[in-house]
Specification:
single chain; 97 residues; mainly alpha
Length: 97
Amino acid sequence: MNFKKIQFDSNDAQKIYENYLKQIKSATKKLSSEDQNDILMELNSHIYESSIKKEHSSNEVTNLIAVLDKIGTPSEILLPLVELQKDTKVDIWLFLQ
């Protein structure tokens, strides 16, 4: 499955989103490319689904920041997974649920 970036109307929201994607890629660089892609798609899905739920507000930047704050920073949420992956193969889907 191919990764598809979310497109925001606001340039500021797009920049925030792109920066978050870079953080995900940086936090997962020690993992296999398959695992990196799985994590990227899963977190992207959470961002997309949460953004749709907040669509009633007109401020994309505020909505996106709220969504990303709820998810957490990639380095914090992915560190335990990356550390576990060093020692044993962990089912990424179970970890991210």
